[in-house]
Amino acid sequence: MDTILPAELVEAARKVIDQNRAIGRRVAVAESCTGGLVAAALTEIPGSSDVFEVGFVTYSNDAKLGMLKISSDVLDTFGAVSIAVAWSMAQAALKQSGADIAVAITGVAGPGGGSLKKPVGTVVFGRAEKGGDPSDVHADRKDFGDLGRGGIRLQAALCALELLLPDASTP
Known about the structure:
Layout: H1 7-22, E1 27-31, H2 37-43, E2 52-57, H3 61-67, H4 72-78, H5 83-95, E3 101-107, E4 122-129, E5 139-143, H6 149-163
Parallel strand pairs: 1-2, 1-3
Antiparallel strand pairs: 3-4, 4-5
Helix pairs in contact: 1-2, 1-6
């Protein structure tokens, strides 16, 4: 296959497309620090339109507010890299699409932008499913460490793809 994406990312995306196609499930993503890398991996797979519904790249807080309608109170209180925002992003992506499941990614890819509480390599994921209880939060924070910008984005994309698998455990 002629691709510029890492082979492990393409293989993970292929697994997501194949397994979700088998159960007739559509997926959506809301990405911040990965900047569309998950959507790019999914659409690298021929026939991905059977499964992939939409990808929102909401890199800035303004985009999160405008495109996903994230509450400014949530953003101001918890910050963009938080479980509250990742969960809100996943819920919004699900609500604004025809998807059955949505995964959101927000984090600090570096090299700058980190803090003591949220150092470079901090990434938060959220997952929402159609028919799920919106008060039952499915989100988790991972600390990848400073793997470099590309390394952090790759690891975050791989985790997000894993969360789109039908048998994925709750983040």
